[in-house]
Amino acid sequence: MRKGTRLRLVLRDLGSGSAFASMAVSGQLPLWSLVLYGVALVVALAGRRPFANRVKLTALLLLAVALTLGTNVLAGSLNLVVAACAFAGLISAQRLLSTPDAATDGQVHLSGLLMVAGGAALSGELVYGLFLIVFGVLASIALALGVVESAVPEGEPVPVRAVMGPLAMGVGFAVVGAVAFFILFPRLNWNMIGPGASPGLGVATAGFSNTVRLGGAGTIKDNPRIVLRATLTPDPEKETLDAYWVGRTYDVFDGMEWSNARATSNGSEFMTTLRPGQENLVHQHVELMPAYGARTLVALETPSRLGNAVANTQVGSRRTQIHELGGGEVRFRDSGISYSYEAYSLPPGASGDDVQDLPPEEQDSLLSLPEGLDVRVGQTAARVLNGERDPLAAARKLSAWLQREYSYTLELSGDVPDPVADFLFQRKQGHCEHFATALTLMLRTQGMRARLATGFFGGERVTGGYVVRAGDAHAWTHVLVPGRGFITVDATPPAHRASQSPRLLEQLINFYEVVESQWRDVVLDYNFRDQLTVVRSLTRSHEVPKKDAPPSRAPPPRAFGAALLAAAAAYTAWRLLTQFLSRERPLEATRFADAVEAQLASARITRVDGETLEALDARLARERHPLSPALTPVTRRYLEARFGGRPLQQGEATRLLTDLRRAVLTESQRVASEGTRPPQARAS
Amino acid sequence: MTPRLPSWWARVRSRLRPPRTLKVTRIGRTYLVVTFGVGLGALNTGNNLLYLLLGLLLSMVVVSGVLSERCLRYLSVRRVGADAAFAQEPFAFRWAISRGQGHAFALTLSEADSPLTGAGGVGYLPAGVDHVVRADLTAPQRGPVRLTGVRVTTTWPLGLFAKTRTFPLESTLLIYPRRTYACQDPGAPEQGPVGDAGNPRRNDGNGDLSGLRELAPGEDARRIHWMKSASAGKLLRVEREHEERRTFVLTVADGLDAEALERRCEEVAALARRLIEEGHEVGLDTPEERIRPAAGAAQERRLLRALAWLGYERPRGDEEAA
To answer: Least C-beta-crowded within 10 Å: which of A85, A293, B33, B105?
Structure first.
């Protein structure tokens, strides 16, 4: 293997790997295809080609895999696009492990092209764009090295360094051209169908379930993945929102875990109203990301209305209904990878609920205590409250006491028989669920209605909206204040309410989120309206007119530039069209002669076998046939076009044939009027 | 009559539309099919990522055209030629190519519009270097081959398209008859061995001096080297090498059809080569010319050239071909 060839093959293989990765980031490819391709790529990068002598066998295996995939598609267990992408990956893997000749190289690159196209259909991830660029660069270099290598005589080295400069320039121009094409090519379909949602890589960790069990590990607080993205109206324009995003509440505690007294489901609808709204509701457009992984809708405390939900699946997006469950939970009826919906919440403060508004079973459960609750809980609460009977003031007093006397930790001892007593009297440290549970139960021991609420706390501003991380998962207490409704009181120390993930990691993810937001706005959601905006920005002046000067009606210089470009494009198109229409057609003269002979046949001019058109014309001229004057110029022109190097001009054949047809018609009418047979041409 | 265009406009036109031919390679065809499919998918689904990919694919096509055009500019080509070209066997042919500015990649050189098959390549051509490109060309049959130009093709940068520029260079390459084995006997020589071989009294050679030996009884006294004999005190005679050089005149009869003429030319060329290698003098008698017998490589070249031109109209002066 000569110098440069090894590098070319490595670049080729890495390019193929990038193409496969552009599909793999969607998280939809079957695991076995990921494993097979990964093994093939590693083996190929190691320089081994075990399929070099087993082409037929591996082709048969591919056929078998294709049949299996097809069967799965027909059975409905596999998406067609996913199956096609997986098969493209396997074809590429088979080619990677085959003898690296010119044909194989081409097949590897073309299968890579198919894979990036498949990746575009599978996901809209920002990472896809990165892999697309990596594939473009690596495949271009490998192709260019292959082209040069094929021209270098045997034994001479491939000039790798010399290739790089011009090629880098070319790839740079290609990227610029691609961007220009992307911006300017008209979106004829108004972008009605976007890319299907993809689960992406990583496990979804929302933490919502029908129960909350104390004693579990708090590792979710370390997770920086973004689970929720929201745009608020009116926009608070704060860098840190520090708001409670409630998912559901719990009212029954059995000593170990929280649940709900009422678990019935209402009917499904597209918009549900939890509590009457007011005029100053906070509107939220919420997107639940694939990392969320649950079907519970989340909204700012306190939600009023929820609905207009859309579930994004691998095959597209569709509107979905929602239904209300116990604990104020609202769930999507259909499952999807990600969701978007509208939510309206009451402004911060009280919920306005009255205890009589609640279902009877919930009214009772707000004061229920688990059997066998440690009596020290109530005693401690009474001691701390010291006679305070106002629910809100009592809750705040207990909250302040808990924050002062107890510390926050994510390291727990696991399941214990009485986690509340363990938290309050043994370990004296816990996480948000312990703080919230302790506060709720302590309030209840004093006859004050309260419940546990779970959801998220936080909200970081990113490109005009707010994002919430998995680590922002939180639990707090709702205290029912007569006349005001439920009011949020959080016993968890403020420093530990939001995500506990490393700051650097959060910053990196924030950066990624900003870039991805731009990617979504500029690339994925780019549509015809955006194109019109671009055109307007090119043609309209942005200068602010001077106060005294009359408004100028002249277009800006870039409008002339745009017009010049459009004119150049139109001129080029016209020239190309003209050249296409006036191109030399090798058989045009023959077709012309055929048309002439067809007209002569319609005039019943008999011809002897093998008599050429010029011989026929000469004979008719000798016989003074009436058609001779019309036929002579046609024949002469045919001979010039066929043998004289003077092709027929555009429209000339039609004109000559029209003249001849007119003469044939005149002759036919004359013969008909005379009632005689038309003169028969004789062979000379 | 078309109005004459201004010279500047002609220059612009020639710069914008240089005489090039473009051919889509095999991988290029598949690339275009995939591009078409991606475009169809983009239009059908409205997937912006497919639009982005489509833009990249189309841009690569444009960039490919621009870079290949840059490769073919500022080139100058001349023929170095071949030593001897025989029909139906590869012969070394050389071109010298240089570039005024910039660099070129993956150039393939071949003869345009000629029956010669084969091409030579250069992977990288920097500016200002006179690079000699060697190719093994093959001609199908003997005779003069009119060379009209040198075709320089590049598939740079991605191998999707093969763009060709033809440099007009008029010349003629003379292809000698195919080298085969001479099966037929050359026939009787016109002259026997030159010298005294036929005389029994002079049965030694008449070639170069090979030595001296004592004169035997009955030997020709004219072979005595008198000075050496005087100094040696006995009769010493000169010994010379025997020469068996004969003179053959090979003929190509008139009135042969094309195939028979080809076969006869190949036979005569093979015979001539064999006889000249054996040291004989060989001449040629054809309907068009007669070459006097002579020996040596130059005579072989004369015979081959005469055979190559046989049946073709020879240009005035019979200039040496490329």
So the answer is: B33
Host domain of residue A476? 212-510
Q: Clarify whether residues A164 and A273 are in a common domain.
A: no
What span, in angstroms and rounded, lies between the C-alpha atoms of A654 and A631?
14
State how far the Cα of A57 lies from the Cα of A48, in Å rounded to an integer: 18
Nearest to B48 among A110, A149, A523 (CB): A523
For residue A363 the two structure tokens come to 């009214």
Tokens of B299: 């005579």
* Predicted-complex ipTM score: 0.74
Judged by CB atoms closer than 8 Å, whether chains meet at A132 and B45 is answered as no
For residue B97, list chain A residues with Cβ-Cβ distance below 8 A: none
Regarding whether A226 and A154 lie in a shared domain, the answer is no
Weakest-pLDDT range from A55-59, A454-458, B116-120: A55-59
Domains in chain A: how many in total? 3
| Beta-bridge partners for A331 | A296, A323
Domain B19-175 has CATH 2.60.40.10: yes
Residues 34-53 of B with CB under 8 A from A: 34, 37-38, 41, 43-53
> For the segment A6-37, what is each residue's pLDDT rounded down to a tens digit?
889 999 999 999 999 999 988 888 899 999 99
Average pLDDT over residues A314-335: 83
A176 near B CB under 8 A: yes
Q: Do residue A239 and residue A324 come from a single domain?
A: yes
Q: Which of A158, A181, A525, A528 to mutate to test the interface with B (most CBs of B within 10 A)?
A: A181
Tokens describing residue A300? 């700012």
Residue A563 resides in a domain: no
Cβ atoms A456, A402 nearer than 8 A: no
Distances A230 to A181, A273, A465, A466, A525 between C-alpha atoms, Å: 32, 20, 6, 5, 17
Q: Provide the CB-side half-sphere exposure for A513 (13 A, CA).
A: 24
pLDDT band at B236 (very low <50, low <70, confident <90, very high): very high
% chain A with pLDDT above 90: 19
pLDDT bucket at B316, cuts 50 / 70 / 90: low
Domain assignment present for A437: yes
User: Is A177 in CB contact (< 8 Å) with chain B?
Assistant: yes
Shared-domain flag, residues A9 and A63:
yes
**For position A248, which CATH number holds?**
3.10.620.30
Minimum Cα–Cα distance from B155: chain A residue? A147
Which residue in the set A129, A132, A148 is minimally distant from B123, CB to CB?
Answer: A148
**Does a structural domain hold residue A521?**
no
Residue with tokens 């496969």: A20
Residues A270 and A376 in one domain: yes
**CB contact, 8 Å: A121 with chain B?**
yes
| Residue that terminates a domain, selected from A510, A531, A549 | A510
Kindly write down the DSSP assignment for every residue of A352-418, as one continuous string. ---GGGS-HHHHHHTT---TT--HHHHHHHHHHHTT---HHHHHHHHHHHHHHH-EE-S------S-
Nearest to A684 by CA among A623, A625, A597: A623
Q: Examine residue A446 and state whether it is found in any structural domain, yes or no.
A: yes
CB within 8 Å: B60 and A174 = yes
Q: Are residues A355 and A432 in the same domain?
A: yes
Give the other-Cβ count within 10 Å of A160's Cβ. 17
* Residue pLDDT, tens place only, B19-65: 778 888 988 999 999 999 999 888 888 888 888 899 999 999 999 98
Q: Indicate whether A121 and A218 sit together in one domain.
A: no
d(CA A22, CA A125) in angstroms, rounded, equals 9
Whether B127 contacts B99, CB under 8 Å:
yes
Q: What are phi and psi of B211, to 5 degrees?
A: 165, 180
Q: Which helix (H) or strand (E) holds A481?
A: strand A473-481
Could you tell me the residue ranges of all domains in chain B?
A: 19-175, 179-193+244-322, 207-240
How far apart are alpha carbons A573 and A575 in whole angstroms?
Answer: 5
